[in-house]
Amino acid sequence: MTIGIVGLGLIGGSFAKAYKEAGHRVLAWNRSRSVLDFALMAGDADGELTKESVADCDLVLLCIYPQASIDWLKDMAPYIGRKPLVIDCCGTKRVVCAACFPLAVQYGFTYLGGHPMAGTHNSGLKYARANLYRGAPMVIVPPVFDDIELLDRVKALLAPVGFGRFSVTTAQKHDAMIAFTSQMAHVVSNAYVKSPTASVHKGFSAGSYKDLTRVAWLNAPMWAELFMENKDYLLGELNTLIDNLSAYKAAMENNDRDELTRLLEEGKRRKEEVDGR
Length: 277
What we know:
Elements: E1 2-6, H1 10-21, E2 25-29, H2 33-42, E3 47-48, E4 59-62, H3 66-80, E5 85-88, H4 94-107, E6 110-116, E7 137-141, H5 148-158, E8 165-168, H6 171-192, H7 207-213, H8 220-229, H9 231-253, H10 257-275
Parallel strand pairs: 1-2, 1-4, 2-3, 4-5, 5-6, 7-8
Antiparallel strand pairs: 6-7
Helix pairs in contact: 3-4, 6-9, 9-10
């Protein structure tokens, strides 16, 4: 196959390495020419993805920010043709899908929203690895939900990457879920580590601190764009968290050990209900 990769950061670079490792041809585009040149030199890509070469691709993966993905697709739409399947890999889906589904209809190519549920707190091509997606979930947002042939085609094109499972959903449901499972974790981690006590934690911290602060080390411009695009769902989750935290705070302020114990037991039960022991 010939695979087009737009953006050679952690996400796009890992796709490029996975397809190259599986013996496929990779054409890549990156905003910074130096990164593209390095990928070509290192053998992570075989050539540049251009207006002249995009129609040769079997699959094109948009691995850049949502607005940048929209802008790139608007520019390239007249040249894509009917052969490639285009999938964006952005962290939110409503904005990018609303812009890209009509482009696909207008210019006659096939587009789906997508979100590979894998990553690290590091960013950039130097942290990319071929096995990043092995066993990971992949969320797909198709234009229609009864096209089994299209979904089979998606799975076949993505098979060399090694995803563990595929979920099919709407852009709205994706964004509602991701506000809780991903975006909230980044906000809480980033806010938690701002405590003045963090500067003197060494020698007093173990797994709990490490787990809670891992994703505080984030790509601020990217996450700010994702948070603002999904702020309705994210604010709803934040309000729920603030209400729950306020209940713990009130119990302690009121020296109400029974209430505090009840709240803690409630949280423990909830964890068991949703994830098991």
